[in-house]
Specification:
By secondary structure, the chain is an alpha/beta fold. The chain contains five helices and twelve strands. The chain has one domain: NagB/RpiA/CoA transferase-like (Rossmann fold, 3-Layer(aba) Sandwich), CATH 3.40.50.10420.
Length: about 200
């Protein structure tokens, strides 16, 4: 098989030997820092995915989280280690210490986390699973996820988001609730993660 392959490639090279070399491809990619973040654009993009956006001031986070929990009927929610105490809602809070099993996570009503960065252009929230974000299973198993985004964490473009992240850390990029479509384009939500996503934009 290798001999036949080498012979074919040799013939191709011979046939192209007298042809001019193609020009180099354009490399004018957008890079980090090319535009200011637009919070209204971020909120609009998040809504386009079917998620809910809640906008609030920095000192009103806990009250809005509590209201969102009640609206969703979420009474038992997981809060990861490092989650700010002044953001905690009035609800039955479960701690992931010791680590909750998958079966235990499947019985909770939802999870609340912070994030590492958010991208206005795509309405994407990125978790690097640091303090307040928890391990990946916390945001994949429960059916409801509320993520809190500080206004200063929103960047304009995907390259800005990549530049703001630590490449050595695990990352989860979230663009709306989990959804997939089969060959007949029938949309099914909640297959690979939370069926319901709320994004609270603080600031």
């Amino acid at each position: 098989m290798t001999g036949a392959r080498d012979e074919i490639l040799a013939r191709v090279r011979l046939a192209l030997a007298d042809r001019p070399q193609p020009p180099p491809p354009a490399r004018e990619y957008r890079t980090a820092g090319t535009a200011d973040a637009d919070l209204d654009l971020f909120a609009a993009r998040v809504r386009e995915y079917g998620a809910t956006v809640i906008r609030t001031g920095p000192g009103e986070v806990a009250a809005h989280v509590t209201a969102a929990m009640r609206h969703r009927g979420a009474r038992r929610v997981v809060v990861p280690a490092g989650f700010p105490v002044d953001w905690e809602p009035e609800a039955e809070l479960l701690r992931d210490d010791p680590l909750l099993t998958t079966q235990e996570l499947d019985t909770v009503d939802g999870v609340i986390t912070s994030c590492a960065v958010a991208v206005a252009e795509t309405g994407t929230v990125v978790l690097d699973h640091g303090a307040g974000q928890g391990r990946r299973a916390l945001t994949l198993v429960p059916d409801y996820h509320l993520v809190i985004v500080r206004a200063q964490q929103v960047v304009a473009l995907v390259p800005d988001g990549i530049a703001a992240l630590d490449p050595t850390r695990p990352q989860t990029w979230i663009s709306g609730p989990s959804a997939t479509s089969d060959i007949e384009l029938c949309r099914v939500e909640g297959v690979h993660g939370p069926r319901t996503l709320d994004v609270l934009l603080a600031g």
